[in-house]
Each structure stands twice: as structure tokens, then as C-alpha cells.
Amino acid sequence: MNPDYQIVLIFMLFLGLLAAGMTVPFAILLPGIAYLYVQGGTGALHGLGLVSWGSMDSYTLTAIPLFVLMAEFLQGSGIGLRVYGGLSKLVRKVPGGLLQTNIVGCAMFAAVSGSSIATAAAIGKVALPQLDARNYDRRFATGSLAAGGTLGILVPPSIAMIVYGTFTETSVAKLFMAGVVPGIILTLLFMVYIAFAALARPGIAPRETGTLPAGVILRALVDVVPFVVLIAAIMGTIYSGIGTPTEAAGAGCLFSLVISRIWGHLSWQEFVDCLKRSSLVVANILFITYAAFVFSYAMSFAGVGEQITGFIVGLHLNKLEFFLALLALFTALGAFVESLGMIVITVPLLYPLLASYGIDPIWFGIVVVVFIEMGQITPPIGINLFVIQSISRGSLTDVVLGTVPFHLLMFVLLAMLVVWPEIALWLPGSISR
Description:
Blueprint: H1 3-19, H2 24-45, H3 48-56, H4 63-76, H5 79-90, H6 98-113, H7 116-133, H8 138-149, H9 159-168, H10 172-200, H11 214-239, H12 245-262, H13 268-302, H14 304-314, H15 319-334, H16 339-350, H17 354-357, H18 361-376, H19 383-392, H20 396-419, H21 422-432
Helix pairs in contact: 1-2, 2-13, 3-13, 4-12, 4-13, 5-6, 5-11, 6-7, 6-8, 6-10, 7-8, 7-19, 8-19, 8-20, 9-16, 9-18, 10-18, 10-20, 10-21, 11-12, 13-16, 15-18, 16-18, 18-20
């Protein structure tokens, strides 16, 4: 069979397995092994042992279980509830009220969880009962939570950035730095939109009345400060060069355990449950990563990367046209493949093209993460949509429609990154100097 037809069939097999309901790791792994066998027979399978060892023997990947466990401690101990409650009092007079708390809370939780799903679930469980009790617009409320959850993979530390750095051998610390300014910009874009929408349509976010006593404000600050200190400690350790992302994650994990015990209600049983939940999450992430390495090895063995590189270079696309092609590709994939799946499928094939277009791999990593964010709220597979819908027990249509304005704001951020790449490159460049 013609090699071009073979690769098309393999990708059709991958999409078919996803459509049939097979989990992402197996949907990636099985076509990869099948393609490897078609290309080289049983002899080609002999390399799987080295691939298996090499893919998991990575110091960079050790940060993932630590960040996941840290987020589980904070969520399981109820710290998220205290932080949300404190933020709701501090921003109560801002147009949008608790909707603004959704975005700020998601941005803050994203800075320790590194996961879009964890961020959406943690803040959603806390926020939705309070939003419903205060008669906030359901569509706007669920949309802001689903979109706010996407900040989990842009605001560092980010599991998606760690995986990208593993595949491209790019500095994870620099990727984290590069995500700071875009993350802040996207958070502000969300908040400004909510403020204008609340002023234009007061019914979507009832205004809070009255003045809070100074003691209540002080307690709200006490609820928020430990979380802020944890974020600052993690980011400061990485950006100052005191420790690697893995070392910062280890220190953050220990510190989160302490504040979860002091400020939260982390019992022994909850501690054990946190270990169990984090083990399941990490196993899923690393299994996807391993399957992707096998798939990438199969593509490399068959020379698919070189063929794709030659094909795209032969089209003589300029940089803007190449970016628009990426936009179409990731938008389509976002409707069918979850976030890590998009990284592990596309990055090994696209990364060799960057040099020919003069694209900085750090900048490209941030653009890929923004594309993935959009995929988190793109139906029919956008996982954040289902997370928020399951918590709200409402209509999935309301959640989808509620995310549309935020989806458009992500396009604004992408356009800004194309026009001003320094948005992503300024901070890592200034610190490295």
C-alpha cells in the first residue's frame, strides 16, 4: 500500500477509536504500534523497550505528580472554599461581583494546580451554589467557570507546558515565565468583558449592597494570603533560579500540606484520599505521554515528520499563513481530542518546522497552549464544558453558549501574540539576561 494511504488510515483509525469511546492513551498507542508493525514488521517492535525506558526516564516529568498532589491537598482540605469566600468579599463592589471571583479564583488556583480540569472542578464546586443562591444568570455563570478553568494550562505552573518541554527539550522554567504575561492578559480580558457585560445588563450579576465591617475584610485577607504566599513561593523559586520546577513543586507540595492542615481540614483519611486521587490523575497523564512517545517513534521510524516538513515547506507559506493553518488544525482537533492528546500528536510533527519559519520554540509553546485552552471549551469534546455541566446539573447548551464570548477573547490573545511576540518572550528573555 502507498505510504501516504497508510498514514491516512492510521489517523482515521485513531479518530475512529476516539469516536468509538476508547480512552485517549489506547487510542494513541494502538495505531502507533500498528503503524510501526506495518512499516517494519516485528523487527521494528524491538525498539519499544528503549522507547518505553527513554520516555519515562525524564527528570522534567517528575514535576507532574508533585503539582497534582499539591492541588489535591488544597482542594481536599477546603482551602479552595476559603479562598473563594475571601475573594468574593474583596471584589464584591466590582461590576460582575462573583463572576469576577470566578475568574480571579480560577487564575489563582491555576497557579498551583497546573490543570484545566482541576481548576474548573475546584472553583465550580464552590462557586455554583453561591451563584445560584444569589440569582446570577446561569448561562453567564457556567460559561465564566468553564472559560476560567482554561487558565489552568496557561497560568504557570502548567502540566501542558511540562509535557511540551519534554517533547521539545525546551526549558520548562522559561516556558513557565513565558506564560505569565499572556496569562495575566487573558485573565484581565475576561474580567473587563464581565465588567462591561454586567454594566450593560445588570440582571446577569446582581450588585452587592451595604458595606462590610473592617473585621470581615481582614478575615477575607487572611483566607487569601496563604494561597498567595504559596503561589509566590513556587514562582519565586523557579524564576530566581533557586530551584528547578521539580524542586519548586516538591517544596510547594510540602507547604500546601502544612497550610491545608492549619487553614483547612485535612484529616488523615482525606490525606490518604488525596494520594489515591493524585495517583489516578498522574497515571492517566503519564500513560498518555508514554503512548505519545510510542506514536512519535512510529512516525519517526517511517519518516513521516520529514515528509510533512517537506510538504509544508514546499507550499511556500509565509509565517502568517503557517499560523492560520495551525489555527485551523488546532481548532478542528480541539473538537475531538483532549488537551494533552493535541500536544503529543502534533508537536513532534510540527516542531521541526519552526526553524524554517524563524519561530521561537518558547513562543510556539505558549501559542500551542492557548490553542489547547480553546479546545477545552470547544464542543463536542471540550472537557471543561462537561465538568461544569455535571456540577451545575443544567443544560450543556447553556454552558456552551456561555463560553462563546470568552472563546472569542482567546482569539484576541492569539492575535496579540502574533503581532507582539514579546508578550510571551519578554519575561524569559529579561530574566535569562
